[in-house]
Amino acid sequence: MTLTLQIILVLASILMSVFVLLHRGKGGGLSSLFGGGVQANLSGSTVVEKNLNRYTVIVAVIWILCIIGLNLIQAYGL
Questions:
Q1: How many CA atoms lie within 13 A of 24 on its CB side?
Q2: Are 78 and 21 contacting, i.e. CB atoms less than 8 angstroms apart?
Q3: CB atoms within 10 A of CB 31
Q4: Where in the chain are the domains?
Q5: Residue 46 in contact with residue 37, Cβ under 8 Å?
Q6: What pLDDT is recorded for position 34?
């Protein structure tokens, strides 16, 4: 059980990193400093961006549940 949760945790961590890096800049960062913010503000939120948000939240919930599960296993020796 512990090994399974650890593998899922590593995969969720990698996926969450990729999904966060795939998000478009919302302005205020380095992308807007070089003119990327103007283009991001002109285009609306697309279906792809909304789905990417949903997938990021789902992977984050899985990541948190794996951490809680591993902590419970370590604390109670389940």
A1: 18
A2: no
A3: 16
A4: 2-76
A5: no
A6: 55
Look up residue 50 and give its two tokens: 């909304």
For residue 31, give the 3-state DSSP assignment: helix
* Cβ count within 10 A of residue 51: 10
pLDDT in tens, the chain (78 residues): 899 999 999 999 999 999 888 887 665 444 455 555 555 555 556 888 888 899 999 999 999 999 999 999 999 987
- Asked whether the beta carbons of 4 and 72 are under 8 A apart, the reply is no
69 three-state secondary structure: helix
Contact partners, residue 19, CB within 8 Å, separation at least 6: 52, 55, 56, 59
Whole-model pTM over 0.70: yes
Please tell me the number of Cα atoms within 13 Å of 45 on its side-chain side. 7
